[in-house]
Amino acid sequence: MRIACPFCGSRDLREFSFLGDAGAAGAGLPGAGPGAGPGAGAEAGADAGPGAGPDADAGARAEAVYLRDNPAGRHRGLWYHEAGCRSWLAVTRDTRTHAIFAVELAREGAR
Amino acid sequence: MRDVQSHRLDAAGLVDRARPLGFRFDGRAYEGFLGDTLASALLANGVRLVGRSFKYHRPRGIVTAGPEEPNALVALREGARREPNSKATAVELFDGLSARSQNRWPSLAFDAGAVNGLLAPLLVAGFYYKTFKWPSGFWERVYEPAIRRAAGLGRSSGLPDPDSYEGAYAFCDLLVIGAGPAGLAAALAAGRAGARVILCEEDFALGGRLLCERDAVDGRPAAAWAARAVAELATLPGVTLMARTAVFGAYDGGTFGAVEKVSDHLAVPDPGRPRQRLWRIAARRSVLAAGAIERPLVFPGNDRPGVMMAAASRSYVNRFGVLPGRRVAVLTATDDGWRAAFDLAERGARIEAVIDPRPAGPPALEERARRLGARLLRGGRVAGTHGRLGLTGVTVAAAGGRTERLPVDLLVMSGGYNPNLALTTHLGARPAWSEEIAAFVPGGLPPGMSVAGAARGTLSLGAALREGHAAGREAAEACGLGGCAGEAPRADDEAAGLAASWPVAGARKAFVDFQHDVTVADVALAHREGFRSVELLKRYTTLGMATDQGKLSNLNGHALMAGLLGRPIPEVGTTAARAPTVPVAIGALAGHARGRHFKPTRLTAGHALAAERGATFVEAGQWLRPQWFAAPGEADWLATVTREVRAVREAVGICDVSTLGKIDVQGPDAGAFLDRVYVNGFSGLPVGRARYGVMLREDGFVLDDGTAARLAPDHFVVSTTTANAARVMKHLTYCAQVLWPEADVQLASVTEAWAQYAVAGPRARRLLEALLGAAADVSDAALPFMGAREFEWAGVPVRLFRLSFSGELAYEIAVPAAYGDALGRALLAAGAFLGVAPYGSEALGVLRIEKGHVAGNEISGTTTAGDLGLGRLMSRKKDFVGRALAGRPGLVDPDRLRLVGLRPLDPAGRLSGGAHLLAPGAAATTANDLGYVTSAAFSPSLGRWIALALLRRGPERIGEHLRAVDLLRGTDVPVEVCPPVFVDPEGVRLHA
Amino acid sequence: MRYSLLSLAANALRGHAGWRPAWRDAAPKAAYDAVVVGGGGHGLATAYYLARNHGLADVAVLEKGWIGSGNAGRNTTIIRSNYLLPGNSAFYELSMRLWEGLEADLNYNAMVSQRGVLNLFHSDAQRDAAVRRGNAMRLEGIDAELLSADEVRRALPFLNFDDARFPIRGGLRQRRGGTARHDAVVWGYARAASERGVDIVQNCEVTGILRDPAGAVAGVETSRGTIRAGKVGVAVAGHSSRVAAMAGLRLPIESHVLQAFVSEAIKPLLDTVVTFGAGHFYISQSDKGGLVFGGDIDGYNSYAQRGNLPTVEDVCEGGMALMPALGRVRVLRSWGGIMDMSMDGSPIIDATPVPGLFLNAGWCYGGFKATPASGHCFARLIATGTPEPAAAAYRLDRFLRGATIDEKGQGAQANLH
Asked: B133 and chain C: CB distance < 8 Å anywhere?
């Protein structure tokens, strides 16, 4: 497999490591889950006042962290160009054929 | 005394008769020529019996002239270079070659294992599933060893491979796989058009079937045309010719794996050269031109030495100048097979008969065969073969059923052609059935691949050349190259005249898979017992699982099953081809990564100094760290480590801590960023101060611990454990780029950029004063505990932190790595008057256990901050990674294992890591398991063994007596539970 | 027909014409008491134990291809119960005990070969971890022994002791571990289940899960028509998420490709299973003589049943580092299987929120050794609605509760387990 890193060009699979579903990124963080906009994390942090204790919604957050769609087909996953520019990439790929449709910088992709 | 080459022709062929090569087979000396394979040289010397089959130990000879060979397997070379199961047909002859036959005892001609043949009625497919179940325990002790000894073929030397291997990358516009007519034409067309072309050919000679045929291309003899084509390719600047290179696998994104046999044609690789080289080829386009393999016919006794593929017999005559037999019968279901009769006859063989099961065929062929004096048996078959160790005759049956025995020493057979399409299926495409050639042909293709010539099922030479040319031209155009591809080479379009001739049930001792002794009866049995899918057939009978990978056997077996099922072959299908397309040496796939070069070795800047000081090194991930520095007269490592620990506790020691991960965190949001990744706060940390911090994973368990120091309002340096440096860096970049892309923060791993020493002990400050002089004020007031400073010393930037892992007055001093060696020497010189001692990772470990600091054994990925006594660090004023999930019931359960210290009740008692904790008198069961010892050490400070442990409700049990039980080592040590800090619990020494 | 040396000899005299199919290739009925989706080892074992232990024989096993065509036929055939955590060790030891009686139970030689499993370690920290695990095994009543480097050398002199990047410091051995012939396990269970009345239906792909108005399972839609059943057990590891999605469920599972390799057959060289501790590599030798080996998963989610070259190289590097004689042994075949990589590395055997729908999933790359216990425990759950004690920890909700069973301590990242 070869991944076209936006900075480094087409590079061999061995330079990259895969993390998981892009949609699950940050799901365990209040305010940083899928659908939350940039900066939401900081606001949520302010909500968690002293003595908040275990989150009432820890279970819901755990669901978001642990459960996966795991499709056989088109999938958007997070890859790390570990042996390259250390960019995190969102790669849209077919899990049945490994065909790659799109590679974007994760920081630019809408989370 | 070497035998004469009894079957070598005086002329013909491409071998160099001026270059004789001596070789040995089973200890006997023979001679061949440069350009021979081992198989052609053996045939030239009249050697027909070369091996024994897998199961029945039946005598076997040479069947093919290529890598599809099922029978002629030998152990090549001697000693540690022995290569079992080498196909004689694919071994390039070299002077001094030595080979031995396999799977026979005591000798090839008399093999005791052949008794299995008498037991054949019992040893049918799958017999072992039905037997050997009784009595219990006999399987491992009696039956299985016997089966294993009988199975297997060649023997591995068991010795380290003395040769070396390497890996390389290549990139091209077009990869052409196979240098036969279609491949050469494709490479020529694309190369002329200006494409960067790599042409890979498994054989040592380029030309493929052109080297074995007597047709003309562009008016020249085929082999001469091939030579001219190769010469032209060599002049094209973008073209790379790679002979002896087999493309074994197609992978994603146009990547191919290929193995180049760099030195296998030499007795020993030249100095500095590898035996083989693994190529990873990234190609924009590819043309598969790997040809086709002739299919055997299945008839009684078809495995006897002297039965050979018709195309192979033509290879031996035309390419190698060897006559594989003098009295020949030809059994063919194709018009193409008749050509063997003509080529062999022309070189002096007597053609006894041509047997063609098809009722009719071209009269011209028959007329030509008749002129040779051959009997023609249209609609005939071979009913049996004769000869104990080699063919002496065949019994043929005419269309009417009348049988007759003919004295022959060679029977050649042709059952049609199977395209070499395996590379088209590696990415998941399935082959398609062609009624026209009665074989599977490529169906879907990997992206960017096209197929030309016989690999596509195009069996006429003229068409193969045209297809190859077109494929090469189109590939160049697809890459945007518009140069002139030239004209397609021209040759006759002679049809191969194929008709299906499939094995049918009933024949006795008719072999479908030669090497694995799978017979027609075995396939019928599989059908009877319900193993009817071709994949179940394969697994039940082992059809196609031998070292020839089913190249000869699969389709015959599948066709036989289709016949038994009464269904068409394409409906029954075929098994999936997997990489590699030819067996590949594990050494080649590993490359240079073996022995000490298995992984890179990372050395700190202080390595040479440590070595000078007599350090024993130990692996810490890829790093080598000094483990201890033995002094003369010390009895063992424990004495050494005890001395080093005492030096730190009583005087001063220095320790190279450069392997700890160091990450620079810079930017206006650096503080806020660290607030989010550590459980405790960092944005409020004053400049010039450091703080211990704990990071969690998103699931709430501890990821790593370490300190972060603030060097400027927008600049922190984060330290990680040695083991987790890369993982923490990855985690932080993930947080910065994915979770909070809006944060203005930049990260850089600077682990290798700085050399860092711990300077620890009551005299540490005096050492630094002596070292640094006026460059820095290291007084307690100027640099209190957890202070951090940056300054210049002798023109070198220095980072100085007052941190302590040992619990003593201690510092960590860092300089750019280039000055690390000098720093170490300067520390030792400046501290000499203070009794400074270098200490290693072992003493470091003892010091931290005495202080109850957690490390890798405690931060195991399943411990929470609370488990480790670090729960109080978790801020309630801010959010951080892992906070939400750390609140799950399972992570805050009071029954969790939590960190404590342990002391043996008997001061002489010894503790070991991994022992489990049980209450006194409790039975050794899982239910009574209270926890385990994470880290144990002899404490020089306390004069006894101590340990850290994770204990159920640990802190509540302080003062209880338990047992540390190590069932593996047979120890059971009564212990007292105590707080985990054994030395200076008040921290007085730290603040000295 | 019973299998024995006698029946083999008697059939040999008749040209083996008397053998019947090992199992009935059944056509699906319209309804069953219970349907097991997945004709791999786990599904067939489940059906067998449903019939044998719970008297539930009106059962169909639905297989989309041919039986054993998934991971049952793609693994490296290792059996062992050398687990650390209580949630796992009791379960895998139950499996080991079932392996030990399997051939007598099934009247089929699955070639269970207790040739030992040896885990090497290469550092003090790894030794401590091995000792901790070995002691946990002994507490559970599982055999375990600690080997010094010298003892390892005496047992396996051809390993790399003298020129190693990460020298072998010793090993943890379970003598009762070993290998079993994977296909034979499938066929043995199929034959035994079939004899007890279970319908084994091949080429029958489940395309939907039927629900009654109350939401409970009512059967399955398949490529061979609708099949009604009040209980549906799903044992399709590798594809669990896809089948669960038919019932609207998301699982803590990611599908990953694991490659495996076999060498050309050679005479006996290696008489045990060895795992390298300084890289991802494990190896054993089959009865046929092939060296069977593998390593890490490729690392990206996939349903392609094939992998890429970097993992091939990584595995072979581990092999050469451990056994430098492998250099001249050739890889004959490689293949890929799709692993249900769960988020804590441990499996799931549980009822689902959909009444009547039961799940057996998340086996990562450890499913083969679990086959007998998986079937045993899943059958009990389907038949009685209550879990077998040895599998009681394998609950779906453990992730939400924080009761994960994480042997490797890698957390919620599927490809690290």
From this structure: yes
C-alpha–C-alpha distance, residues B308 and C316, integer Å: 36
| Interior/surface letters B654-672, b for 16+ CB within 10 angstroms, e for the rest | bbbbbbbbbbbbbbebbbb
Quick one: B686 and B821 in the same domain?
A: yes
| B734–chain A Cβ distance below 8 A for any pair | yes
**CATH code at B57?**
3.10.20.440
Per the CB < 8 Å rule, is C309 touching B280? yes
Q: Let me know whether B332 and B224 are in one domain.
A: no
Give the domain range for residue B100.
16-111
Least confident interval from A34-43, B116-125, B479-488:
A34-43
Instruction: Give A-chain residues touching C399 at CB under 8 angstroms.
Output: 62-63, 65-67
Look up residue B5 and give its DSSP letter. -
Cβ separation of B968 and C124 shorter than 8 Å?
Answer: no
CA distance C158 to C160: 6
Q: Where are the domains of chain C?
A: 26-81+84-107+182-252+344-416, 117-176+255-342
**Percentage with pLDDT > 90 across chain B:** 93
The torsion region of residue B879 among left (phi > 0), alpha (psi -120 to 50) and beta comes to beta
CB pairs under 8 A between A and B: 126
The CA distances from residue B710 to B666, B733, B772, B775, in Å, are 10, 19, 22, 20
B and C: number of Cβ contacts within 8 A: 367
CATH class of C26-81+84-107+182-252+344-416: alpha beta
Number of H-type helices and E-type strands within chain B:
26, 50
Contact (CB, 8 A) for A58 and B885: yes
Place of tokens 């036969």: B180
Using CA atoms, how far apart are residues B123 and C8, in angstroms rounded to an integer? 9
Per-residue three-class SS string for C119-144: EEECCHHHHHHHHHHHHHHHHCCCCC
B726 shares a domain with B822 = yes
Q: Which residues lie below 8 Å from residue C219, measured CB to CB, with a gap of 6+? A: C31, C35, C209, C210, C226, C227, C228, C229, C232
What is C117-176+255-342's CATH topology? D-Amino Acid Oxidase; Chain A, domain 2 (3.30.9)
Do B756 and B857 share a domain, yes or no?
no
**Shared domain check, B208 and B228:** yes
Residues B390 and B303 reside in one and the same domain: yes
**For residue C389, what are the CA distances in angstroms to C91, C357, C386?**
9, 20, 9
On whether residue B160 sits in a domain, the answer given is no
Structural domains in chain B (count) = 6
Look at residue B300 and tell me if it is in a domain. yes
Pick A106's closest partner by Cβ from B737, B879, B887.
Answer: B737
From chain A residues 27-56, the ones with a CB under 8 A of any chain C CB are: 28
C400 contacts A20? CB cut-off 8 A: no
CA-nearest residue of chain C to A1? C308
Q: Which stretches does DSSP call E strand in B338-425?
A: 350-356, 375-378, 381-386, 393-397, 403-406, 410-414, 417-419
Give pLDDT, residue B4. Answer: 79
Q: Is residue B781 part of a domain?
A: yes
Q: Give the model confidence (pLDDT) of C72-112 as tens digits.
A: 999 999 999 999 999 999 999 999 999 999 999 999 999 99
Q: What is the pLDDT of residues C296-331, one digit of tens each?
A: 999 999 999 999 999 999 999 999 999 999 999 999
Q: Do B862 and C22 touch (CB under 8 A)?
A: no
Q: Is position B745 within any domain?
A: yes
- Closest partner residue to C303 (CB to CB) among A14, A59, A96 is A96
Identify the closest residue of chain C to B128 by CA–CA distance.
C109
pTM of the full predicted structure? 0.96
